[in-house]
Design a protein that fits this description.
The protein contains 12 helices and 8 strands. The strands form 2 sheets. A 6-stranded parallel beta sheet has the order 2-1-3-4-8-7, with helices on both faces. By secondary structure, the chain is of the alpha/beta class. It starts with 23 loop residues before the first helix and ends in a 13-residue tail after the last helix. Helix 6 (169-181) links the parallel strand 3 and strand 4. Helix content is 44%, strand content 9%.
């Protein structure tokens, strides 16, 4: 299957008429978000290595898939992420400070400290909370899209996943459900070449992920995931099909995971470092889009240096703020599951209070917020 592109690796438009002609304001917002994400990744990766947070996942090399998608969506559209789409959240309005609070699981964490770092979510921004089990968001997204259809909403669902998740049974169940119910959902596959340590060549024998969409009778396209404008065009049209025609769409974005899978991984054990450095030099989505902006006289070296300095300072300030806050109140252990606490939960809560009062040296809650 061919791959749709707008920009070549030098940031030049390949086919006249394919440039979406986004405004200067929109383009600079996309680029600034890319840089902010990049700075956050660098700082938080090092923070984990210093033992200041427990876990982290970088987004290096896949920024084009996040920002091209986010720019093409409406804020009413519901996002189901996998775990490497932080750029889409930042573009929609999830702040660097909120990311820091979540990664530190502190008292201002919207998830109240109940999730691993980078498992973001925001009800206000229509971003479903990320969950660790692989592929569970796929059938959830299909069901959510069917609910939007039943309600007659002028919105769709966008579900991100990696090519590794496409090997899960949930992938097939979700596509079949969405296709047969004709629900407004965009399945966005980030094919970054690796499912943790398993390279794509060992995951399947067919032509990637996109061709599977045809088997379910779905509109399908493959796009260059390092080309933010191509991703924008593809998602914009996919959204039109999903909302206006009430049909699902499968997108496969070809990209590359520059960083390790997570801070629990060392990718040098299964891929040569030269492979990674070659990708960074030849086809980093940030560099390609920057060349496009420079050709339009919308960006310069001076602006770039200033932006990176400012973005780093913002991340460090948010980092310090989050690190100095206390953990969520202990009482949060017993809330947000039931509308009214059943007797056994009340009993457990009272028992914990008794133990904490009886053995204060063993149950030190000085690092936790008060109710």
């Amino acid at each position: 299957m061919p791959t749709y592109r707008v920009l070549d690796i030098e940031g030049k438009v390949i086919v006249e008429g394919q440039d979406p002609e986004l405004s200067k304001e929109t383009c600079l917002n996309i680029y600034r978000t890319m840089i902010s994400l990049n700075q956050m990744d660098m700082i938080m990766y090092e923070a984990q290595r210093q033992g200041r947070i427990s876990f982290y996942m970088t987004n290096y090399g896949e920024e084009g898939t996040h920002l091209g998608t986010a720019a093409a969506l409406s804020k009413d559209d519901v996002i189901f992420g996998q775990y490497r789409e932080a750029g889409a959240l930042l573009y929609r309005g999830f702040t660097i400070q909120q990311c820091m609070h979540q990664c530190y699981s502190n008292e201002k964490d919207l998830g109240k400290g109940r999730q691993m770092p980078v498992h973001y979510g925001s009800k206000a921004l229509n971003i479903q909370t990320i969950s660790s089990p692989l592929g569970t968001q796929l059938p959830q997204a299909a069901g959510s899209a069917y609910a939007l259809k039943r309600e007659g909403k002028d919105a769709c669902v966008v579900c991100f996943f990696g090519e590794g998740a496409a090997s899960e049974g949930d992938f097939h169940a979700a596509l079949n459900m969405a296709a047969t119910t004709e629900s407004p959902v965009i399945f966005f596959c980030r094919n970054n070449g690796y499912a943790i340590s398993t390279p794509a060549r060992e995951q399947y024998r067919g032509d990637g992920i996109a061709n599977r969409g045809h088997g379910y009778g779905m509109h399908t396209i493959r796009v260059d995931g390092n080309d933010v404008l191509a991703v924008y065009n593809v998602v914009k049209e996919a959204r039109r099909i999903a909302v206006e025609e009430q049909k699902p769409v499968l997108i496969e974005a070809l990209t590359y995971r520059v960083g390790h899978h997570s801070t629990s991984d060392d990718s040098s054990a299964y891929r040569p470092k030269k492979e990674v450095s070659d990708w960074m030099k030849q086809d980093a989505p940030i560099n390609r889009f920057r060349k496009y902006l420079e050709a339009k006289k919308w960006w310069s070296d001076e602006q770039d240096q200033s932006l990176r300095k400012t973005a780093r300072a913002e991340v460090l300030e948010a980092f310090a703020n989050a690190e100095n806050l206390k953990k969520p109140a202990v009482s949060n252990l017993f809330t947000d599951v039931y509308d009214e606490k059943p007797w056994n939960i009340v009993e457990q809560e009272e028992k914990l209070k008794e133990l904490m009062a009886k053995y204060p040296s063993h149950y030190d809650d000085s690092g936790f917020a008060k109710e």
